[in-house]
Amino acid sequence: MIRWYHIIMEAVNVVTSLLSNQYAVISGASQGIGAEIAKVFASEGAAVILLARNETNLRQVADEINRSGGNAIAYPMDVSITDNWRKLSAFMKKKGLSCDILVNNAYWRKLVPIGQLSDEDWQQTLDVTLKSYFLGSREMIPFMLERNRGSIVNISSLQSHIPEPSFGAYAVAKGGVDALSRVLARDYAPVIRSNTIIAGAVDTPGFAEGDDFKRELGSRLPAGRIGYASEIAATALFLASSQSSFITGSEIHADGGRSIT
Ligand SMILES: NC(=O)c1ccc[n+]([C@@H]2O[C@H](COP(=O)([O-])OP(=O)(O)OC[C@H]3O[C@@H](n4cnc5c(N)ncnc54)[C@H](OP(=O)(O)O)[C@@H]3O)[C@@H](O)[C@H]2O)c1
């Protein structure tokens, strides 16, 4: 009796999981928002392929997912390099993996007034924060076309709409991300959807500010606090899944209401 109960509950879980039988590739998945997205997607039945440079952190995230019954592969790489994406694609084909969902999430930035930014830092910002989104999309789109479905979720920032001082090249790169997302939506409709999350301040290792600063910043937002990575992951899950099947070329603000202040 108990055995039948488990078999039926497992079947129900497969049916109700939002991402069952799907592969998701997530860049910047070794910590913060990317790691949270990986955990949420895996808990909804996706096999997740995790990308970032720090192999130790990446494997920790993958191990945690696999220990809790999910399916995660850690693939350490610098996502700003074209050849790395080609090698990933070849690896996926060799292993019989595919891609239904791509989350472009990795970023790099240097906070200085734009007039003090070196050529190298400008280029590095654009390479990691914008070019990697293009490279990832270009390399994963053939998998999606082959499967006749796909969703690309691009993680952007409110800095592309309302830049704070010294966010220069990062804000410019994120503006490019917003446009790229719409371009992808136009070029690959109706098979592939592409949408953007405009994130506000979110408590992650990358948001390296003290608790007092976070509290003070949060108190100025309509939400009364800054965001959690899990809240961006929940938004990404919505955009990745068929729950958002009529949404493409859109931006969702997950910013605690900052854009209306
Ligand atoms: N947190 C916020 O307040 C906030 C606000 C608005 C938007 N966002 C956006 O949300 C996304 C995630 O931010 P987060 O706060 O979660 O950042 P985070 O904690 O600093 O994590 C960034 C991730 O990107 C990876 N990464 C950086 N450079 C890489 C490269 N060249 N190749 C591969 N992976 C690379 C890092 O891993 P490795 O170092 O191991 O490579 C790490 O996994 C970003 O797109 C960011 O712009 C965040």
From TrEMBL:
GO terms for molecular function: oxidoreductase activity. It comes from the Bacteria. CDD domains: SDR_c. InterPro entries: NAD(P)-bd_dom_sf, Sc_DH/Rdtase_CS, SDR_fam. PROSITE patterns: ADH_SHORT. PANTHER family: OXIDOREDUCTASE, SHORT-CHAIN DEHYDROGENASE/REDUCTASE FAMILY (AFU_ORTHOLOGUE AFUA_5G02870), SHORT-CHAIN DEHYDROGENASE_REDUCTASE FAMILY PROTEIN. This is Short-chain dehydrogenase.
